[in-house]
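User: Can you recover a sequence for this backbone? Please restate the input before giving your answer.

Assistant: Of course. Working from this structure:
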């Protein structure tokens, strides 16, 4: 993946608590970085307040991370986030993490999110306004079968 393929990114400074005993960022921290990118992506597109994390109603079905190079305490990581495709009830997000000073790729990943109704505890269709907003922002079809 290339940075030019993404329309959205945020910067995250590696915290001491992200480190492991080997002196680099622990593998689990990258999933949190992806999550931060995803949350800020939705906040930007849908103008969500900072205390709102569930209005859109999505749950993570699948998550992948390919570790490329280690990251270290104090580095600033740019987390690029995008939606690749949207189906009836799900969509795929892609992530690219690049260290800002050296521009080296640290990790790449993807996740599948499913639209979910927390009240009925059932999956649902991706709401039309969500589909339309993402489709226009990413310049992708609003539905892939």
């Amino acid at each position: 993946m290339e940075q030019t393929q993404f329309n959205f990114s945020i910067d995250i400074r590696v915290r001491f608590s992200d480190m492991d005993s080997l002196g680099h960022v622990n593998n689990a921290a990258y999933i949190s970085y992806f999550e931060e990118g995803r949350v800020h992506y939705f906040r930007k597109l849908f103008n969500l307040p900072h205390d709102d994390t569930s209005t859109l109603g999505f749950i993570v079905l699948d998550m992948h991370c390919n570790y490329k190079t280690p990251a270290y305490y104090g580095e600033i990581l740019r987390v690029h986030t995008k939606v690749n495709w949207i189906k009836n009830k799900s969509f795929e997000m892609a992530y690219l993490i690049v260290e800002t000073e050296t521009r080296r790729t640290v990790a790449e990943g993807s996740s599948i999110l499913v639209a979910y109704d927390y009240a009925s505890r059932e999956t649902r269709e991706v709401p039309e306004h969500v589909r339309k907003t993402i489709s226009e922002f990413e310049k992708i079809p609003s539905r892939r079968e």
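That completes the design. Residues 3-138 form a domain with the Thiol Ester Dehydrase; Chain A fold (CATH 3.10.129.10).
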